[in-house]
Predict the structure.
Amino acid sequence: MNWTRRDLLKGLGGLPILGAVWWAGAAKTVGQRKERSEILETLDIQPSLPNTFQGIGGTPIRVGIIGFGIRGEQLCRALGFATKDWIKSMELEVQENPSNKVLEDFYNQERLNVHMAGVCDIFDFRANKALESFASVDNTIRRYADYSEMIQSGEIDAVVIATPDHWHAPMAIEALNHGVHVYVEKPMTHNVQETYDLRDAALNSDAVFAVGHQHRQTLSFKTAEDIIKKGTLGHISLIQTSTNRNDDNGAWNYEILNHANENNINWEQFLGNAPKVPFNANHFFRWRKWWAYGSGLSGDLLTHDYDRLNCVLNMGIPASVMASGGVYTHNDGRNVPDVLQVNMEFPDFYLGSSQRDKKERGMTFCYSATLGNSFNRPTLLMGHDASMELGNRLTIWPDQASSKYKTLLDTGKMNPRIPIYQYDPAINHPDAVSSATSQYFADKGLMWTYVNGKRVDSTFLHMREWLDTIKNGGKVSCGIKEGFEEAISAHMAGISYKLGKKIEWDANKQALEPIEGVDFDEVLLSNEPPRNAFIEVA
Amino acid sequence: MKDKKSSKTYTVIVLRVLIGWHFLYEGIVKLYNPEWTAYGYLASAQGPFKPVFNLMLADSVVSMVDAMNMAALIFVGVTLLLGVFERAGALVGIGLLALYYLAHPPFPGLAQINVEGNYWFVNKNLIEMVACMVLLQFPTGHVFGIQALTKYPQIKKKLS
């Protein structure tokens, strides 16, 4: 039979449609990929790889934990020691939600060469919990009556300090003076004078000193450092950071245990250098709410955001700080603010300019916090050429008026609404995060990071780095220099809030600009309401 | 054979070409983008079959699922557009759409993720699936498609 043209048309008419669809799909996809790789080549960003560790060999490091509360327990887990209660409660959570990987992650965590040799807690219940959970054939553990006894016992090589803020410096200084290594929670100190004293102690000691800003281990932050060094964002003039929490836990209203009383809590020791008040369980469990023991939003949470940026930008102590706020969401007797805005000025901040006349210089770091709303405001670094959202994920959007990307923007290869770079080490690993506060920390990259696609607790990495430095030498990523900058900046914010005044830093003198008639530390620690008592109105 | 060229037949042909077009384009976009994966789609699956879809998340399984999904999409696209083995194509299409429907069923009480309209039990996946059933029952390749060439013995021989 011979072919007719009509039959061919009917028989093969689908072929040109197939060809057209195929071509359109291929052209679109290949074109997009080409544009993308062109942008990526322009940016030349190298995602950071985790540090390599030599391994912590030899005799185990004898660690003592001082303060076995919420954070103390977390730090012990990072060292490989979990309480029986925690394991039990996690097993229940896994039963309810099989995608909760917290327990599995804990069991898979690399074993550190640690002997958990001592605990020091002024609450019998907590000290006993540590003894019951950690004592084993392989691990002998002893309770010490107070931190001095522990430090001077000669049985402890390194201490982890997770007490209320007003105890951080006295304990750390004593340990350093005795050659005992220190890992102290943030903020490093409770007032300005202590910050100098602790710096002196650390510089004069052979012991390794580390501040607990674990996010310095987060790979996305290391990648962000590379991004900024390469001038991807252009001149950064504004940084926006924030705290947004709206639950009891986030507002530091932790559980008060009914069985806690003066007989099982050493109240005198809790108070230390704080004003003498009768036993108060509210103060004991929720100490973050009073200036006498804690540091409020400026010391507790601003320090996270400040150090996250200081680790990326190395911007140091601000030339001046202005803060304002109040107790607006939790009028429950607390005297630290629950709404706080802090502006830190860095007039000399300069990392290069993409503009011809190089007219840019200076930057404001803005911290905005509320404990009465949990809408997620991301951390934003706003540059002339691009904006970057910084967290566990990184996202960069080009700016429509960028000088650097003008050609790419004009030719439509870049679009201000479409990110030019995204770094998400967790892309294939959806996480189960149990509480609102955990989610708050996870979003900020404060809880964990990803190594080879595997979720790793960043606190674990931070403590491993500290132990590694103790054994093998080297430098910790958050040592006394970083801790000093963090503490002074936080205290400037606290003092400014209290005084309603701008607080200035003299970098040459390494001192706060004095204000006549004002003792900054007295102001900072005072339980008086802000502004009223401190300055006589002329 | 009289209704062979009726407007009904042509309507079904148009339907077949459009569905083939849709499937082929989806398959080709995935073919040329080696980074594409169904991981997010499977991980966010909802409804009664959520555990089944979550089982496909293991690294070795998900890459196989990706490859099979892409191959199946292209197979449906090519068969429907060319009008050859169109019943097999329609059948595979029904299977794929049923999976898509069950992974993210528009049931009340379930959050609708990445959905541009409002649906209650019935969504576009379900409708396209039923459209494939129509194609399964009304083959038109003998009117428009390679099947039409089977009156030539040499083609018939090759296709049978």
In short: The CA atoms of residues 396 and 421 of chain A lie 5 Å apart.
